[in-house]
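Name: Amidohydrolase
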Amino acid sequence: MRGREDRGCPVTLLEAHAGLASSGDFSVADLGAGTGPSWLDSWLDRHRADVVAWRRSLHSVPELARSEQRSTALVARRLMAAGLEPRTLPGGTGLVCDVGYGDRCVALRADLDALPLAEDTGLSFASTVPGVMHACGHDAHTAIVLGAGLALASAPSLPGRVRLIFQPAEEVQPGGAIDMVADGAMEGVERIFALHCDPRLEVGRLGTRVGPITSACDLLEIRLTSPGGHTARPHLTADLVQAIGLLITQLPLLLTRQVDPRSGTVLVWGAVEAGEAANAIPQHGVLRGTLRTADHATWGELEGKIRSLIAALLAPTGVGYVLDHVRGVPPVVNDAVSAGMLADAAVAALGPDAATGTEQSSGGEDFAWYLEHVPGSMARLGVWPGHGLMRDIHQPTFDLDERALPVGVRILTNAALAALNA
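Structure predicted for Amidohydrolase:
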């Protein structure tokens, strides 16, 4: 796709990449070496260290949601150096780029943003940005999709186009995928694939699942009001703290009788604020939590059910309230054909034991927005070295085995080719 005006890349980031590439140890094994196609083997032989360097460069300079200008520019520079024409979104964060020619098009998606966490890994390429780190593997996702795209660009020919989608703001609701769709990233796309790092799965394995693999996630905030009063005379006012207690205990319980128990619906409170003095009924209080479900149809019904239950619970108390129900992302529901293509791609690259099943997560993922438009699948890429601790995502100590990077490149390349040849 033809590029817009180049918004540039700070010298510091390019220098960081150059420094890593020239001085780092990038002797990462290619677990799928020799499985072809020959042009993919050749590209990885020559550029495997580059993929690792890209990941480390992104990791060392992480950027929060909707601030990923430098990461976007680094990716754009690599694509343009290969003769491709990336198009950056108007805000300067996120880009799309087509590889190949033809009417048929499949997409590969990566996410660019980091998390507001202070890194505690001790890595030589640890975050240089205070309070920000790539704790969810988005640096790896970006390096893998960039590698797959450039490998595909090296092929003698392709049976169609592969669209590379590097999106901003996956970590915030309702997600940067909406920005990409609104900007036309899905126009002409038949199918879409994505990988997500899984620190519970060993390197060389890919976890696939047909149907929902993540859950919808909404945010609830209930702001309560009361005239307030003395705790010695609760009958003369509206007891705001008691009302909060009712919501905390009864709303999740009653909701279980309003939805199908097979839907995996769960409401969990994360914050409550009310009052200061032990002998004073407060005038204001706030209750916040997350509402999750694995079922798409149930997700569409939840807001109405929640509003009705809150009204019924608070009516006898006299406490006033305002509900802010922020709808987040739908569940990621994997298409059977697409999930099968990813599993087959893993087997082709790494052998019959590479593909395995995976459980559904209660976490949310804005990859779901793409699946509102076309079939596709997200799979879990093993990043655990097979020994030592399994360092979970969204933790300051999260790290990954970089042998997973060429694995990811091979899987996405094979999946894209399979989809175009289907």
